[in-house]
Structures are given as structure tokens and as C-alpha cells.
Amino acid sequence: MKKELTMDSRSARKHEAILEAATSVFLDKGYSGTSMDDIAKLAAVSKQTVYKHFSDKEKLFADIVLATTDRLDTTIDLLADLPTDAAGLEENLTKLARQFLTALTDPRVIQLRRLIIANADVFPELGTEWYQRGFERGLATLAATFQRLTDQGLLRIDDTLLAANHFSGLLLWIPVNKAMFTGSTQHTEADLDRLATAGTRAFLAAYR
Amino acid sequence: MKKELTMDSRSARKHEAILEAATSVFLDKGYSGTSMDDIAKLAAVSKQTVYKHFSDKEKLFADIVLATTDRLDTTIDLLADLPTDAAGLEENLTKLARQFLTALTDPRVIQLRRLIIANADVFPELGTEWYQRGFERGLATLAATFQRLTDQGLLRIDDTLLAANHFSGLLLWIPVNKAMFTGSTQHTEADLDRLATAGTRAFLAAYR
DNA sequence: CCAAAAGAGTACTGGTCAGTCCAGTACTCT
DNA sequence: AGAGTACTGGACTGACCAGTACTCTTTTGG
């Protein structure tokens, strides 16, 4: 009875618990600051079980990073739908900017960035993978949106990918750097509002 | 005879050698990837001597980071002198942008950024210090330059600090992120040229 | 020239941690 | 019910490493 559900049962549950615990501890204490015993303990699982599911620490780390990378779609989708009515262009773009900012200044996202950057020497493939599947993919989506706006005559852009980069840079350079260096993921709503409107205004001044 | 020079002699020479070796190894292998024995060996010094000059590993790390932070002045000074003749504004600004890009995509600088970000959890003061003395100071200098240009009617900016942030974001968001994640400090001259001209053009479109 | 300080070299302590081993227990599927 | 598989818990190995101890040599500065 219910074969799939029973297959899911213990083994898969443990697997999930380990992944979740590992993600949490790695994000919190970094790769080398995390011991396999920490993970086992938080997952409420014996160390043996951890090693049964993940051959070693590196593999576990890679898996949790790629797993979170997979979950980026919702954030990226956000960049795809922008109402294309001429009237409220600035307003719509500001709103998009605002959501973009919220998504990328989320503490978990910032922590993940730090984690990947910190270990990009040891795991170069991970950094590259994340850069391509997270970063470049998001930019490409944004560029496509800009292309639509350009086709409709709402913007004047020849290199939409470059424009997407500029849009991100205008918005994110400040808050992301601050978060990276000071660890303060403290951005008030008002801060983000200000960044979104100012960035969008500069962008439109340049590209409309 | 020559008291200062003799003072400089052995002790100071060793001190310098240790700092230099530590900088090199830390940049290369990260904080926890570096052992005190590594440093002693590279500095051609006994481990005892390392501990005579620096009380412990954390202190040594903090010292080398702050030392490199001190050496930022030349890079920052670069942002202060911009010819203010109306004629070649775009050209001059592009040239500034180009130098800015070269300075900040330098492999050593990128490695330092990584090192600080990676350890911002463990050494929050270091990250904050670097952010303030490197980052914010540079932006303030650039803002002052923009103020001069605005006073002369060459630019139209009300919030010069914001404009400085936008200028940096337009230029640096792409290459710095790429370098952070992929580890590839491979930026061809042509790439940098392209980034500088495109960024400057967008900036002037928004702020002139 | 001589005492004090600095350094070399090497061995040692104490602690952490990835990964393994093993003996016994719980679960799952037929 | 019963065989096979997964999980537990704890002990263990081997490696690494920060920081110390100790003895012997070199440098320094008066």
C-alpha cells in the first residue's frame, strides 16, 4: 500500500532532516566552522546516518548549496513579469526594483552569498554554478523584460543585457556590499524604498 | 651609531618578513586554511619568533588586514583628481572609471575582499573597519569630486553621495561579482574598456 | 667585551575533527 | 513472521594545529 509514501518514510525523512540541519549550520557557522557532529546533532541523527546519505563533508556542502540554488526560480520569475502599460512605467519599475531589493537583501540570501564567496577557492565549481544559474540567469530574464519594453517603445536600449547589469548595479551595489562586510543585514523598509526609487530614477534617466 | 637604523635591524626585519608572509598565505589559503607553521616557514623564521611579534593568530590576521587597508590611499586619491574642463568631461570621466576598474579588479584586492567577507562573521570589526576606511571613504572622495563638477555646472546632481554610489555600482557590480564567485580574475583590457565606457555613458545620461 | 634580548630548532600538550568500526536496536517490505 | 536494511551510540584512529617549553646560537647595545 502507498509504495511511494512508504518509500518516503524513514530514509527520506532523515535525508531531508540532514539537509535542513546542514543548511542551517553551514549558513550560520561557515564550512570549516561546522563539524559533522554538529550537523548530526541538530538533525537528531547519528553520524553514521549522515555518512550513509552523503559520502563526505564536501559532498554534503555541495548538495546543500546546489539545493538552495534550485530554489531561486521564484526570485527570478519576479523579474519576468512587469506590466507594460506606458502610463505607470516608472511606478511599475520602482515596484519591481523594490521586490528585487527585498529578495536580495534577505538575510538567508546574503548568508548564502557569503558562504559561496568564502569557499570559492576550495569549491570553484560551486561558485561558478551559482553565478551562472542564479546570477546570469536572473540578468538574462531581466534583459528579456527590458527587450519587451524596448520593443514597445517604452525604453531605448540597444544592449539589454548591459542595461540589466546596470539596473542591478544601481540598486544592489550599496546594500549588498554593506551586508557583505558589516554583517548587518539591517535594512529598514525606508532604506530599501529610497534605494529603489533613486536607482530606478537614475536608470530611467539613462535608458528612457 | 645610527640608532634608528640599528633598531630597524633584526627585529624589525623579521617583523616585516612575518607580515609579508602572513599576508601572502592568508590571501592565498584563507584564515583557517593557514597554519602558523606555514607562515613561519614562508617567512624563514621560527614559530617562536612569530609568537614573539604577534600574540596569536587572530591578532596577526587583524594586523595584516588593517595594514593593507592603510595602503588604500593611493587608490582613493585617484578618485579626487579629475580635470574639470568642460570639453573633455566624458573622456576624463571614462578615464577615471577605467582606472577605478583596474584598481578594484586587481587580483590582490579581490582576494582581500574575499578574505574579509569570508571572515566577517568571526571578525566583525575588521569588516566594518574596512568598509568604512576603504569603501565609504572612497565614496565620499568621489562624491566631493562630483560636487565640484556640479558647482561648475558640468553635472546636475543633488545627492552627490548617492551619485557616487551609482557610479560605482554601474561600473563594478558586474566584474566584482564575477570575480567573487568564479574566482576568475581574468578581465581582459578590452572588457574593462567596455565596462568603463558603457558605465560612464549611462552615468552621464542620468546625471548630466 | 659582556649581559640581555631575540632567534632557531625541535619536541611536546591539549584539543578538534573527519571518517571508520562495531554491536545492538528499529523499521520496512513481502 | 522474518530477512534485509537503516539507524543508534559510542568508541576509536589518524591527522592537523594553536600555542608552549626548552636548549642552544646569534645579535644587539652599552
Structure, explained:
Helix content of chain A is 76%, strand content 0%. Chain A is mostly helical. Chain A folds into two domains: 3-68, Homeodomain-like (Arc Repressor Mutant, subunit A, Orthogonal Bundle); 71-207, Tetracycline Repressor, domain 2. The relative contact order of chain A is 0.10. Mean pLDDT of chain A is 93; it is low at 1-6. The A-B interface holds A 29-30, 32-33, 114, 116-122, 124, 127-128, 130-131, 135, 159, 162, 165-166, 168-174, 177-178, 180-183, 198-199, 202-203, 205-207 and B 29-30, 32-33, 114, 116-122, 124, 127-128, 130-131, 135, 159, 162, 165-166, 168-174, 177-178, 180-183, 198-199, 202-203, 205-207. Chain A binds a DNA duplex (30 and 30 nucleotides) through residues 3, 6, 9-11, 14, 35-37, 45-49, 51-52, 56-57. Chains A, B: Residues 12-72 form the HTH tetR-type domain. Chains A, B: It comes from Streptomyces polyasparticus. Chains A, B: Pfam families: TetR_C_7, TetR_N.
Short descriptors:
208 residues; mainly alpha; Arc Repressor Mutant, subunit A; Tetracycline Repressor, domain 2; Homeodomain-like_sf (chains A, B)
